[in-house]
Amino acid sequence: MSWVTPRIEPGHSLREQIEESLTAAIIAGQVPPHELLTVPVLAQQYDVSATPVREAMLNLARRGFVVPVRNRGFRVREVSRDELVHLVHTRRMLECPPMHEVAQVFDASVRSRFDELVAAINDSAEARDFATYVRSDKAFHLGLLGLLGNPVLVDVVGNLRDQTRTVGIASKITPEQLRASIDEHAMLLDLLEAGDGQGAADLMDRHIGHVLGWWSGEAEETAATATN
């Protein structure tokens, strides 16, 4: 377990912080499939007692991220290509059409908040800190959907995004592809601010498709075929 663990802040739920940290590390591929995670080692790594770690791991097991291994710990579960295809297909159905409504409520008064998230996405990508990248990217996209005031949609899409993980993404995507994917966030904000809901929906469709393409080390044409 060689990923860098963030500092656990006192006064906040230890279980939630550990679960969020492990979720991001697994999604980013920093903790690979089949790796065995043990409560004592994680507790030492996070400098906390075993209780919040155990609670976090049990939640991750319920969410399908890990599988309990009797008397040993928890093993990270691998997401198959077929599962990724189904997840991407579902996310496109849930994340693209709402861009029409988001474009109707998005304006300059909320843009600065999302510009800050774009900057965080860019900074973490330049640092090759993909766990932080994943957290900032999720905050950006769920924040846009949150403008519609539908917490059920935000929760469902958030869970789907968490399940949409690939292995070793840092080594699969090229710097040029990563830059293009990052730039799409600012492009999306421009389209929304201009009220171009269809353009924003089309861009979201392409952006989500990178999961099966660039982020999986595949050609984008192959990714498009996989979801048809």
TrEMBL record:
Keyword Transcription recorded: yes
UniProt cross-references to CDD domains, sorted A to Z: WHTH_GntR (cd07377)
Extent of the signal sequence: none
Tree of life domain: Bacteria
A Pfam family per the record: GntR
Family matches, as SMART domains: FCD, HTH_GNTR
Keywords: DNA-binding, Transcription, Transcription regulation
GO molecular function terms attached to this record: DNA binding; DNA-binding transcription factor activity
Domain HTH gntR-type: 12-79
PROSITE patterns to which the protein is assigned, alphabetical: HTH_GNTR
The protein's name in its UniProt record: GntR family transcriptional regulator
Organism: Aeromicrobium camelliae
